Amino acid sequence: MMAKGLENSVAMILGALLVPALLWFLVDPAALLWPAMHWNLLLPIMAVLVITGISASNDAARKICRILVFAVLGLLVASFAVLFSMV
C-alpha cells in the first residue's frame, strides 16, 4: 500500500514539476500554457487511460496507466497555476 502512494506522489511530482520545467527551458515558456488552453483535448485522453487502467488484466498496465494519469493531472495543475498567475 505504501508503494502505491509513493508511485502516485512521484507521478504527481513528475507532472507538476519536471515536465513543466522541461517545457519552460527546452521549448518555450508559452508552451506551458498549452495544456491549460487545450484541457478539453487532454481530458478524453485521461478518460481512456483511466478506463484502460481499470480494465487491464496485467498489474503493470494498471500501474503505468495510473502513473500517466497522475502525471497529466500534475501537468494540468501546473499549467492552470501559470495561467491564473498571469491574470
Summarize the structure in words.
- This protein has 87 residues and is mostly helical.
- It contains four helices and no strands.
- Helix 1 crosses helix 4 and helix 3 (39-55) runs antiparallel to helix 4.
- The longest helix has 27 residues, at 59-85.
- 17% of the residues are buried.
- The model has no long low-confidence stretch (mean pLDDT 83).
List the defining traits of the structure above.
87 residues, mainly alpha, 4 helices
Summed up, what is this model?
The chain is built from four helices and no strands. It is an all-alpha fold and 87 residues long.
* First and last CA, distance: 40 Å
Q: How many DSSP helices?
A: 4
Identify low-pLDDT runs: none
Q: Based on CA inertia axes, which overall geometry fits?
A: globular
Query: Helical amount among residues, as a percent range?
Result: over 70%
Biggest sheet, open or closed, and with what strands and sense? none
How are helices and strands ordered from N to C? HHHH
Rg computed from alpha carbons, rounded to a whole number of angstroms: 14 Å
Class derived from helix and strand content:
mainly alpha
Quick check: average pLDDT? 83
- Extended strand count: 0
Beta-strand content bin: under 5%
